């Protein structure tokens, strides 16, 4: 009885080498495909919180973004308020963070993204330069009453122009206590850029786009309700006047549709 030879045994060495080469190439391609799939599954930085919302993220929290390709940074995203996708740049909650600070702190940011914080004027400038944004400000008093103010455009210039404020048309329930500050440069206790004879930031213990001086002072002292001192609290004049400091505030932006 004749023994049958395996087909591969009858192949010439050159053909066997070709098959081995093909097998190696297939393994290499498989590894490349696996790497591409791994990268596709890996979360990529969004340009802003609205970008992340469009990708299906619905949980409010801290995320990494890169608005302009110049480097990523962490932000707090509000994914529930008024359609979600808001990039929060200011939040007051409990008075745990001191907001009476100088220029460098307001330039770079301070606080804790899961609590009270100021994101930083440089980052706000990057966000508002990379896309046209609207602004929403949510406020709450010590009794749990809530109001909001929206502006259909919001931007700040660079540090060279002292982070000058551009602002659109108001809508909301809190009254308009921000339009007065349109066109103003940002001021801190060590950088007086207002149009008043004295330093508004020093007089009212905050940092803001002061004019002569303010109708709103959301970076003021955390008095938590009524206070005897004049206009140095977290004031929104058209809602609570100058002797009432709000319990909480949140300033946030989202690209205009």
Automatic annotation (TrEMBL):
<dbReference type="Pfam" id="PF00147">
    <property type="entry name" value="Fibrinogen_C"/>
</dbReference>
<dbReference type="InterPro" id="IPR014716">
    <property type="entry name" value="Fibrinogen_a/b/g_C_1"/>
</dbReference>
<dbReference type="InterPro" id="IPR050373">
    <property type="entry name" value="Fibrinogen_C-term_domain"/>
</dbReference>
<dbReference type="InterPro" id="IPR020837">
    <property type="entry name" value="Fibrinogen_CS"/>
</dbReference>
<dbReference type="GO" id="GO:0005615">
    <property type="term" value="C:extracellular space"/>
</dbReference>
<dbReference type="InterPro" id="IPR002181">
    <property type="entry name" value="Fibrinogen_a/b/g_C_dom"/>
</dbReference>
<protein>
    <submittedName>
        <fullName>Uncharacterized protein</fullName>
    </submittedName>
</protein>
<dbReference type="InterPro" id="IPR036056">
    <property type="entry name" value="Fibrinogen-like_C"/>
</dbReference>
